[in-house]
Write a structure and sequence with these properties.
The protein has about 240 residues and is α/β, with parallel strands linked by helices. It contains ten helices and ten strands. The structure holds adenosine-5'-triphosphate (ATP) and magnesium ion.
């Protein structure tokens, strides 16, 4: 059974159909890329998956549970984690405290399994190369560093399914590499990732599968190698070679 099943999902906002009959599934442990031109509905799809927008039609299942009408908070509890751009980071708190807050939000049994909390906090910051800034306020980080902190923190939050919306936007090449490593780490732990990115070489490198959204519809869904040379992909990007 897939971890996530999305079936005939449609969304109309202000008489504009933004998502059209979107159907796909994601298996546990898969890393799936979501690409498509600006305004094609990628972020909107994430908003529907995390419960911030109610679909006009269709259903969403997490394993065998129908979560179509479940609140965002409840979906988070069920294991859907979303990384927002510079959101959810407490700028007035230190990096350490930011990680602690996430750990404290875990159910007690899960927290016990992690072992020594101090070590977990350090390990989390080490993972993204930020442990030397542990005592600094998060607000003093660069945008890219904050992004990494947020991803690292979500990673330790006991989530099953990660929705990452352009995690490398505005991030240096070095940090982009770290994001790729974090995603590989998640995969190793058996976690599932759905990631929106514009950078096709990056997506091809880290994803098992890529879905292409155009005008709110899934027009391609396959292995990076398969979709890369598909004529449709070239057409969508107006004849430009997105891999160039
Ligand atoms: N709350 C809303 N009300 C009305 N229209 C919306 C709303 N949110 C998004 N849209 C519209 O939905 C369409 C898809 O937007 P969305 O942000 O999902 O695209 P995207 O694929 O994430 O684009 P980008 O690559 O630029 O981030 C756009 O036409 C946008 O104007
Ligand atoms: Mg978007």
């Amino acid at each position: 059974m897939p971890l996530l099943s999305v079936s005939h999902l449609s969304l109309t906002l202000n008489a504009q159909q933004i998502l059209k009959n979107v159907t796909f599934s994601v298996d546990q442990g898969e890393v799936v890329g979501l690409i498509g031109p600006n305004g094609s509905g990628k972020t909107t799809l994430f908003n529907v998956l995390s419960g911030f927008l109610k679909p006009t039609d269709g259903s969403i299942h997490l394993r065998d549970a129908d979560i179509t009408s479940v609140s965002p908070a409840q979906r988070a509890k069920l294991g859907i984690g979303r990384v927002f751009q510079n959101f959810g980071i407490f700028r007035e708190m230190t990096l350490e405290e930011n990680v602690l807050v996430a750990l404290e939000a875990l159910p007690k049994e899960q927290r016990m399994l992690l072992g020594n909390i101090k070590d977990v906090v350090k390990g989390t910051l080490d993972m993204v190369g930020l442990s030397q800034h542990a005592k600094k306020k998060a607000g003093s980080l660069s945008g890219g560093q904050m992004r990494l902190l947020e991803i690292a923190r979500t990673l330790k939050s006991g989530k099953e399914l990660f929705l990452l919306d352009e995690p490398t936007a505005g991030v240096s090449p070095k940090m982009t590499k770290q994001v790729a490593e974090l995603i590989a780490e998640l995969k190793k732990e058996g976690k599932t990732v759905l990631i929106i990115e514009h950078d096709l070489p990056f997506i091809s490198q880290i994803c098992d599968r890529v879905m292409v959204l155009d005008l709110g519809e899934v027009v391609l869904n396959g292995k990076p190698k398969e979709i890369k040379h598909d004529k449709k992909l070239q057409e969508i990007y107006f004849g430009a070679d997105p891999t160039a």
